[in-house]
Write a structure and sequence with these properties.
Layout: E1 2-9, H1 17-27, E2 31-39, H2 51-58, E3 63-74, E4 77-87, E5 91-100, H3 114-117, E6 122-131, E7 134-142, H4 154-167, E8 173-178, H5 186-189, E9 196-197, E10 223-227, E11 231-237, E12 249-255
């Protein structure tokens, strides 16, 4: 069976939400993982602050999962920020593990304060998806923040250890997200032993430089898709589209039947 997969950091819930909707409609992916998703229950707020609800309104993704990371203190209210999975197929299992801090509902984060980014809690979202070709294990995360993308810090090492531990023994695994580390970081390279980095070294940046001022982002690949060896990679690409401050990654994969 062939499936299409997309990962995207939507940028504060979806600053360019209409562009995101149009892109996802055109790509018509089976599974989408997102980071920086905002989930407010206030219907008076703009759609950007109700990311999943807004996407489901316009797209065909009946199954979703949200894994909050932090409570953000916006001027107009406190809103949960985290990772999300959208799926065409049923989500049969879900779990979350924190590899940095924990969700703290008592002490909201100031989302536009760079000093808070490095100490923000981070988690690894896992869902099992029952596809027509068999079960998928999808892992979605936003990595520990550090402006030095090559720094193999203890926090990043711990992040990678959490991923390796969570995925051990699983089949048809996809690990993706905004890692907040360069793909060349020694910590991230460890993931290339059990998995294949779909885009490898084929792209120069995964940032949308129309929306970035720091020129260093032009040579930083931080968004990645890793897959287990029971997939054939048919296509991997990074469309240069103006839908976020990050660029999306798209993978077309063929599932290989696992024989016990």
């Amino acid at each position: 069976m062939t499936l299409k997969f997309v990962t995207l950091n939507v940028w504060i819930g979806g600053v360019l939400l209409e562009n995101i909707i149009e892109f996802l409609r055109q790509e018509d992916a089976d599974v989408v993982v997102l980071q920086e998703v905002l989930e407010s229950t206030d219907p008076t707020l703009p759609h950007q602050y109700r990311t999943i609800e807004s996407l489901q309104k316009h797209l065909d993704y009946p199954y979703t999962d949200f894994a909050p990371i932090v409570l953000d203190n916006f001027p107009w209210g406190k809103i949960l920020n985290g990772n999300a999975v959208l799926s065409r197929w049923p989500i049969t299992e879900r779990d979350v593990r924190y590899f940095c801090g924990e969700l703290d509902m008592e002490h909201p984060r100031m989302p536009f304060d760079p000093a808070s980014w490095a100490v923000t809690a981070r988690n690894l979202q896992h869902v099992a998806i029952h596809s027509p070709g068999g079960d998928l294990n999808v892992y979605n995360f936003q990595g520990v923040w550090d402006l030095d993308g090559d720094n193999a810090s203890p926090e990043r090492q711990n992040m990678v250890e959490a991923i390796l531990d969570a995925t051990s023994g699983k089949q048809h695994v996809i690990v993706a997200g905004d890692t907040n580390a360069k793909h060349t970081n020694p910590a991230m390279r460890r993931l290339e032993t059990p998995f294949t980095n779909v885009l490898g070294d084929s792209i120069t940046t995964s940032f949308n430089m129309r929306r970035k001022e720091n020129p260093g982002y032009a040579t930083a690949v931080v968004d990645m898709i890793y897959v287990s060896n029971d997939f054939h990679i048919l296509e991997g690409r990074c469309p240069d589209v103006d839908i976020s401050d990050h660029l999306p990654l798209v993978a077309t994969l063929e599932m290989i039947e696992n024989k016990e």
